Amino acid sequence: MTDARPPILEIRGLRKKFHDVEVLRGIDLAVQSQELVFVIGPSGSGKSTLLRCCNRLEEPSAGSVRIDGVDITARSTDINAMRRQIGMVFQSFNLYPHMTVLRNVTLALAKVLRKPRAEAERIGKAALDRVGLADKARSYPGELSGGQQQRVAIARALALEPKVMLFDEPTSALDPELVGSVLNVMRELKRGGMTMLVVSHEMRFARDAADRVVFMDHGVIVEEGLPQQMFSAPSEARTRAFIAELAR
Amino acid sequence: MGAWSRFLDTFFKWEIIERYFPAIIKGVVVTIEIAVAVVIAGILLGLVLAIVRALRLLAVNALIVVFVDVFRALPPLVLVLLVYFGLPNIGINLPSFAVLWLVLALVLAAFAEEIFWAGILSIPKGQWEAARSTGLNFLGTLAYIVLPQAIRLTVPPLTNRTIAITKNTALGTVIGVGEILNQATTAQSFSSNATPLMMGAIAYVVLFIPVVVLGRFLETRFAWRRI
User: Fold this and answer.
1) Distance between CA atoms of B107 and A50, rounded to whole angstroms?
2) CA–CA separation, A75 vs A93, rounded Å?
């Protein structure tokens, strides 16, 4: 964090209102290159909304989000061009059920980046290989387990070589025995130098993989710090209460 | 004369069948022409309207909803008569064939739009979000992700509705379109015999049974893999 380079993801004064409810009330957060930042907090604290504002699936009401220096909220920014640099992984996978696994991964390569079919498939297979599912290329999502589906979803984002990846509770919809395989893939990404912002409650994973943990409540960042410090000795009472709740 | 031969004489008189067979065939050709034109125009227009509606432009959507509701509420016969006898008063003279095509295509478009729209709405929001987050734009997401899944769901209701509206080509008879029923009633009044009507009925069955069977085939073919 002492890095002098500009952060890959920089959020400043971010606010989001749904009708009269202000879900995000001024968020400032920077994620450095190759950093893995964990966002925790009670449900309704705004952490998913924060993530979704980072690729404008939700339109921020105020503030800015910069990806590698480019303000994605600016009117002049081509949001579709920016989104391919921001990988997004959803809680419910959201694979395309009518397409094979390989087609799920190569669709954007072919239709957005206009890569020739052979090249798109080569990249797609390499991405599937990274998540350990090269042998499932011809399967349909419905034929895979939840853990495998989520890994395909990661490969789909990975294939576009994003500058940062956003994970929205990637393991919350999984049976406990399938969580490990997804976390292993994320560990592998971290080792490969991927910049990641992760909303999740996987405390053990956060402890050994995260560079920083951010605790959110009621639309603000309450405190942030190193994982050990956040989980063992948080300074804020709200954080302490939440961590105690998680650990039960 | 026994009841049986009287029945045959009324509905299946051979020399009348021979005499009016060419006319009925001509009617079949006209019916097929209108039906095909109605199906193509109606479904395409319905699809376009549903896609436009997916853009969620408030004013435009209000217009679409008004169009759809009016054309679904009005009996097609009323529309046929209204357009055929009404338009000449404002200087627009359309041939009866065109009037029938236009009205039925618009009615089918109204129903098709609702069916496609319901299909589009039934696709989970997550599908849109996943596609958009890979940089795919609105139309690309619609074309590659949403419509292929939505259309699969729409095939059964759309098939039924298409068959029902295509059968309304028979309404052309009241404005003198030379389709099956028109040929049959003309022949019936000349011959004072119901045989041509029976020929017309048989022609409809021969024409539409394959369509119904095709519809069933499409329903099973497209019903696969609903996850």
Assistant:
1) 46
2) 30
Query: What ipTM is given for this predicted complex?
Result: 0.92
Q: Tell me the per-residue pLDDT of B135-173, one tens digit each, with 9 for 90 and over.
A: 999 999 999 999 999 988 898 899 889 999 989 999 999
Q: Name the residue among B129, B136, B140 with its Cβ closest to that of A94.
A: B129
Amino acid at B18: E
Q: Which of A87, A98, A111 sits opposite B149 (nearest CB)?
A: A98
Specify the 3-state DSSP secondary structure of B176: coil
Distance CA A215, CA A227 (A): 11
Query: Min CA distance, A146 vs chain B (Å)?
Result: 13
C-alpha B112/C-alpha B164 separation (Å) is 12
Q: What is the pLDDT of residue B225?
A: 52
The DSSP bridge partners found for residue A89 are: A167
Per-residue pLDDT at A177 exceeds 80: yes
Phi, psi of A237 (to 5 degrees): -65, -40
Taking residues A199-209, report their average pLDDT: 90
Dig out the tokens for A203 from the structure. Answer: 């405390």
